[in-house]
Amino acid sequence: MGSKIAVIGIGYVGLTTGACLSHLGHEVICADVIPEKVDALNRGEIPILEAGLDELVQAGRTSGQLKFVLGASSAVADAEFIYLCVPTPQGSDGSADLSYIREAAAEIGPHLASESVVINKSTVPVGSTRVVEQALKRSDIHVVSNPEFLREGSAVNDFLHPDRVVIGADDQSAAIRVAGLYLGLAAPLQVTDPASAETIKYASNAFLATKISFVNAIAAVCEAVGADVNDVVLGMGYDKRIGEAFLRPGPGWGGSCFVGEETVLARYLDDVRLLRFDRLAAEIDTVGAAGWEVLAWDPALPTPEFRPISAFTRRPYDGDVIDIRTKMGRRLTVTADHPFVVGDGRSDEELRVTRAEDLSESDWLPLAQGAPVPSDDAPRRVSLLDAARNGGIGRDRIIARLEPRQVEAVRTVADRIPASRRRDVLRAQAMRVHEMDALDVEVDGATLGTTTNGTYVPTSLDLDEDFWRMLGLFLAEGHIGTDGARRRVAWSFHPTEEEDLVQEVAGYWEARGVKVAVHSMGTSRQVSVSSRLLAALFDDLLDLGTNCYTKRLPDLVWSLPEDHKRAVLSGLWDGDGSWSFLSGGPNVVLEYGTASRELADGMLRLLGDLGIVARLKVGRTAKSTVDTYWLVISGAAQIADCHWLVPEDEWIRIRTYALRLTKAIAPTGYRRLSKSAAWVRVRSAERRPFTGDVFSVEVPGPHTVVASHGLVAHNCFPKDSHALVKIAEDAGYDFDLLKGVITVNDQQFTRVTDKIETAAGGSLDGVTIAVWGLTFKARTDDLRDSPSLEIVGRLVARGANVRAYDPAVDAGATDARLHGVEVCGDPYAACDGAMVLAILTEWDEFKWLDLDKVAEVMAAKRVVDGRNLMDRNPLVRRGFLLEGIGR
Fold first, then answer.
1. How many other β-carbons are positioned within 10 Å of the β-carbon of residue 383?
2. Average pLDDT taken over every residue of the chain
3. 0.70 cut: is pTM over it?
């Protein structure tokens, strides 16, 4: 008699698992949260194309061994075994979403019978067994890892005739119970610990990827020396140590990433930092990925939120990237297959995910608005001693002028001061900080100077609105100069028209007992403080930059309350911003220009935190050798909300002229559809070659990351091979071999595209290309991670008109991944008028088509066989020019 089993999640893995277990004689209840899916299965409708699955489902329904219900809790009450097969497929971002595992485990935990076994079946990161145990909150439940090794197109056969059954468990009795479910299957059984079982899945897929990339590299060698890769592979395959499996050249396999200069707001141990992806990678290399969070966007939440990352990768890349530009000037560069959350600009509910290379001017992207609630633990003061440490200024180089209470404290321990120093210390009421440390005298409250700069500053400064406005003025008009060992922090203003700002900065420092110099220069009025400690605060601790090209917002700004963020921006705008009437009035725009890309990125994000959408313009002014980044705020409603960016007397003028309009003028280029996002329209998505490192991040839950300029992108964590690279790196091992495998694969997409272009005469612009095969592999209807689509996307980007046929894809299909492709109803229609036929998926039926009819309808007899599927001789006899892979 079979066991009672619940399968949670009726996706590809869950449905196959449930149907096959019922076929083995077990009583199976499959549960899902999507009513339409459950209803369809109860009507006998199978949602996926998989050989033999339809028959097993129908047989299970007829016998009563297989049932489908809505909701996990209703399925598990009497179950002895519960398979977690929740949606963790490799979607357009290639990731496994751990949040679904947690949610499912948390939901079923209270309803499980004692001593039941929860079996993790999906492909998930190493360590997921522990995650399930924590989410269940049940010490009387066993959790076992039982990875799936199902191949699309032959999943039923793989389940019933497996190469091996792997069970990972800490409890031997639980492993034996799970092994009993597979009695009758002729396969080796391996019982191991959970981490090893989970790693077996990744390692297996990575090794298969290695074989594919290896044979593609050999194919390139064969082409170069005139060999036939089919013969080479046959000879290799006879070696029992190698075998012939997966030694077949082809177009490769998929993945997606950001380039290193793009940015993300990341949090680690409560410290929030705006980092480039390449800098984040360096940080993670040092401390590991655990504990890192990035800002993510969820349309269901009122603001973006920091979410933990489950994985992060870096890999070398040589291929095409897409430069995305939006109507509001926001820009982002990613690999061509990187997924994006896309809307229609009319609703924030009808969302879809599409690849970067498929974006068009009809697509709208979310721009994150608002900020997470600031922490109550945000610092309220900043230490000049911390700045000195960061700036490499030793405590023996810092002189402290003591306040009365400190003088008294020193007098009580004066006998501990060397006689040669005692008189000078008590007379001058000053000593070096390392001497105070030796006497256990509190430094806070003294004023500090250095042995090379005579200006004294407080030991700490309040992080109040006055501080942040002063800092904003520095970012706009300041610089740090160096003269030998001396350093000077200076603000430069207009020689006559900004005296109020001169007095504001000078007054700030004078109120804190700091000596300030104010000079009239030839073209400016300059306020300066000669202090190595203050320079260390601005440069080494807050990392503000020293000149107009290196300026950036301090990372502390991301944890500030709104009034302090406004103070920073008002200082920036007062210092170097402007307002003007648009086309002579009465409409007004606010503008800010900077030569620092990093400062512009930060300001756009900070404005977004306050719900303000600024347009970005990038260009070069006359005689400039670098780009200027212009931030432009427009629209009557936004201008009214930004009154704090403009001095009060000028605001009165704006309000008098611009805001008296009976009809408020709204800005163009974006639409507010929810509080948490403004939607911006795509202006262009242009392809270009790129060589360098690219970076992937996985954020379970929302599957998004708020990238450069506040643009939201979908997760990009790629296939198991990349995940295994990161697992190895976290363990301290640099997996160079697998990195090379990934690089070869990336190159393969471009090599096949180049072959097609060469066959077309050297240019694809306006040329019709026929494609046979679109799916990930033959005998499936899955387009996810399809190598064919990688090639097709490159063909379209190079100007080709692509007409495609696939037995599992309906004619006229409008899937976003098929943007720019005409899907035909039969293979001959796809070839009509085509200059080249490209075969990209290995459907057997392509071998038996009427080649005479193909020759008749094509404009030229040219075939690029990306799978080496076709018999060469029949094609050559009919006058076709055939280009294969490696022959």
1. 17
2. 85
3. no
Q: What is the pLDDT of residues 71-119, one digit of tens each?
A: 888 899 889 999 998 865 443 333 445 677 888 889 999 999 999 999 9
State how far the Cα of 143 lies from the Cα of 116, in Å rounded to an integer: 9
State whether the Cα torsion 590-593-597-603 is positive or negative. negative
Query: In the chain, pLDDT over 90 holds for what percent of residues?
Result: 51
> Cβ of 146: how many Cβ atoms within 10 Å?
25
Q: In 10 A of CB 161, how many CB atoms?
A: 11
Tell me which residues are annotated as active site. Answer: 257
Token pair listed for 230: 């089919």
Retrieve residue 165's tokens.
Answer: 């059954």
- C-alpha to C-alpha distance for 52 and 615, rounded to whole angstroms: 55
Residue 205 has phi, psi (to 5 degrees) of -65, -40
DSSP string, 317-352: EEEEEEEEEETTS-EEEEETT-EEEEB-SS-SSS-E
* pLDDT tens-place string over residues 335-383: 887 888 888 888 777 777 777 888 899 899 999 999 988 777 778 999 9
State the residue for tokens 């989410």.
Answer: 135
pLDDT, tens digit (0-9, with 9 covering 90-100), for 298-307? 888 889 999 8
Q: Is the dihedral of CA 774, 776, 779, 782 positive or negative?
A: negative
Q: Per residue in 702-757, pLDDT tens?
A: 778 999 999 999 876 444 555 555 545 555 656 565 555 555 555 677 788 889 99
The answer to whether residues 774 and 840 touch, using CB atoms and an 8 Å cutoff, is yes
In terms of DSSP bridges, do strands 801-805 and 768-772 run parallel, antiparallel, or are they unpaired? Answer: parallel
Q: Residue 144: CB partners within 8 Å, gap ≥ 6?
A: 117, 118, 119, 120, 129, 167, 168, 169, 174, 175, 178, 194
Torsion sign across C-alpha atoms 722, 728, 732, 735: negative
CB-based burial, 92-110: b 16+ in 10 Å, e otherwise: bbbbbbbbbbbbbbebbbe
Burial class (CB in 10 A: 0-12, 13-18, 19+), 778: buried
What H or E segment, with its residue span, contains residue 619?
Answer: strand 615-619
85 contacts 32 by C-beta, under 8 angstroms:
no
Q: How many CA atoms lie within 13 A of 313 on its CB side?
A: 28
Q: What is the DSSP letter of 426?
A: H
Q: How many helices (H) and strands (E) does the chain have?
A: 28, 42
Q: Which residues are CB-neighbours of 674 under 8 A, at least 6 positions away? A: 299, 348
Neighbour tally for 482: CB within 10 Å: 12
Residue 634's contacts (CB-CB under 8 Å, 6 or more residues apart) are 582, 587, 588, 589, 590, 615, 667
CA dihedral 779, 783, 784, 785 (to 10 degrees): 90
